[in-house]
Amino acid sequence: MKEKELERLKEIQKIEKNLYEQGIKSICGIDEAGRGPLAGPVVVASVIMPQESMIEGVNDSKKVSEKKREILYEKITEEAIAYGVGIIDQKRIDEINILNATKEGLTICIKELEKDLQEKQRGFEKPDIILVDALTKINTDGISYRSIIKGDAKSYSIAAASIIAKVTRDRIMRQWDEVYPQYGFEKHKGYGTAAHITAIKEYGPSPLHRRTFIKNFI
Question: Cα(101)–Cα(87) distance, rounded to whole angstroms?
């Protein structure tokens, strides 16, 4: 590992290191992917990484190429003590709005993480603390949490969760591209690119589109 990358990793592990020094034993990072797109689900991921974890390239998923994210996803999920994913589809997003849908996904991904801990028999049922990117007023099943603005760029645990969430969502959108190839989901993953908006105007909305997000285009 190059010295510059090692220094970057040490920098984004400072929050975790400080917590470990205070006696915290297990830290869960949580982040989401897909709050902004016009189509598809929002995906929220939770992950507990080992204290000694130092995976080269772990960063805010937006700063990592799609190809590299896929490689990192495999390394993170293999090394993780436990992880969980919550997926909230476009219909639910339209029903309760994107913020509430994201919070609902967060609650699910915590439950999935706890289930993973049980199945793997890690010796504890819940993390000691949750680090989450920006969200507040959330249901964490009684676990204390810290909300960190731009946490995916400041916390190793949140960055790892951001990659799990992003890769999971991208894979879903690539699958949907096979069903609705005319919209180009493979390329833009549902985000509001010019080509995507043109396709919505030409073909009308698909069942995958968020009606509350595209009302200005139909």
Answer: 9
How far is residue 26's CA from residue 126's CA, in Å, rounded to a whole number?
A: 8
Is 213 a domain residue?
Answer: no
Q: Cβ distance 59 to 12 under 8 Å?
A: yes
For 146-204, how does the pLDDT look when each residue is reduced to its tens digit (9 = 90+)? 999 999 999 999 999 999 999 999 999 999 999 999 999 999 999 999 999 999 999 99
Q: Which of 73, 46, 48, 45 is nearest to 59 (CA)?
A: 73
pLDDT at 23 over 80: yes
Is 211 contained in some domain? no
Considering its fold, how many domains does the chain have in total? 1
For residue 133, the cross-strand partners are 148
| Structure tokens given for 49 | 């990484």
Domain that holds residue 132: 3-179
Structure tokens at 133: 């990117």
Decide if 201 is inside a domain. Answer: no
146 has which bridge partners? 131
* Token pair in block for residue 138: 């959330």
- Residue among 40, 43, 85, 38 nearest 179 (CA): 40
Q: Cα separation of 95 and 73, whole Å?
A: 31
pTM for the whole thing? 0.97
Grouping H, G, I as helix, E, B as strand and the rest as coil, residue 157 is helix
Question: Using CA atoms, how far apart are residues 7 and 86, in angstroms rounded to an integer?
Answer: 32
Residue 61 in 3-state DSSP? helix
